[in-house]
Amino acid sequence: MPDYLTGDSRVLQLYIDAAWVPVGCLTDNSFSEEVETRGTTTRNSNSWKTSLVTKQSYTISFTGIETDDSGVVSSLQLKALKKARTLVTWRIYGALGGTDTGTGYITSISETSPAGDLSTFDGEIVGYGTP
Hints:
This protein is mainly beta. The chain has a domain at 1-36 and 53-64 and 89-131. The chain has one helix and seven strands, in the order E-E-E-E-H-E-E-E. Strands 2-1-5-6-7-4-3 form a seven-stranded antiparallel sheet. Strand 5 and strand 6 form a beta hairpin. The longest helix is centred in the middle third of the chain and has 9 residues, at 75-83.
């Protein structure tokens, strides 16, 4: 039977004070890549539309539960990094291998604190350069 990866086997971490630190108590982190193209044709395409890649980008979205654990990056730290426009170094570390790394800016961070329930946060990192 094959080994299946679960969401908790790939964890988003930031490089802070010379150490890799996990972001909050994550319940979700996703990595998506996009590409922009420009339509064109060539002699070899016999007038069939072709596309040229012009720009590429990537985004990391994450959701977590607030914790008072000092061994993780809290939403307060994430807000401070966003407000300071800090270029963060990140990695999504996989327990079974397959680590993605890069740099980016935290472009959004939000908190939800319903009465009588867990406080959660959501955020997004937009990539800077090649992952």
